[in-house]
Amino acid sequence: DSGVTQTPKHLITATGQRVTLRCSPRSGDLSVYWYQQSLDQGLQFLIQYYNGEERAKGNILERFSAQQFPDLHSELNLSSLELGDSALYFCASSSRQGPGELFFGEGSRLTVL
Amino acid sequence: GEDVEQSLFLSVREGDSSVINCTYTDSSSTYLYWYKQEPGAGLQLLTYIFSNMDMKQDQRLTVLLNKKDKHLSLRIADTQTGDSAIYFCAARTSYGKLTFGQGTILTVHP
Prior knowledge:
The complex is a heterodimer of chains A (113) and B (110).
Chain A: E1 5-7, E2 10-13, E3 19-24, E4 31-38, E5 42-50, E6 53-57, E7 64-68, E8 74-78, E9 87-94, E10 103-104, E11 108-112
Parallel strand pairs in A: 2-11
Antiparallel strand pairs in A: 1-3, 3-8, 4-5, 4-9, 5-6, 7-8, 9-10, 9-11
Chain B: E1 4-6, E2 9-13, E3 18-24, E4 31-37, E5 43-50, E6 55-58, E7 61-66, E8 71-76, E9 85-92, E10 98-100, E11 104-109
Parallel strand pairs in B: 2-11
Antiparallel strand pairs in B: 1-3, 3-8, 4-5, 4-9, 6-7, 7-8, 9-10, 9-11
């Protein structure tokens, strides 16, 4: 158990819809990262937050947005969903101490029909 | 920016050693990591190495770092069927960005 909690574990929805994925980082970790994993694209970095502020942006579509709240949990909002958005979405957190490794949640599997 | 490359597939027999290779481009990379992903699960950190080290050993795992060639390898001794998974190499640059490779699918045959 990494200490990172993601909900929901599975989500099935239709094209055009909007979903929200939630992540609670490890206790004390201020950084939260979102990644998308699909068969054709591999593991793609989407966005990073540090203590509520956006720190880095990767290959995140304009239809996607994220935020980190004062209690440090984060949400990833995916809107106007397309079939190609079907993927596993991972959240990870890291500490400023030590080697800075990421601790990953178990992922949210999104299926868009 | 940083680019991290891995071969996509590796197949070995149970009991043999597995060597998974990785190359990276940014010479300012400070930490390099190996993660394991089992089916349906998240990525789990296996080990990491700091850039001023050449080698790190942790039980069946040996990490070798050739900083001159920007080459990282993970050797798994006495590979077991339970080691079948996807292995990701990742590099963190001095300004904090973390980049993952595409992952190597390791298949262990009985």
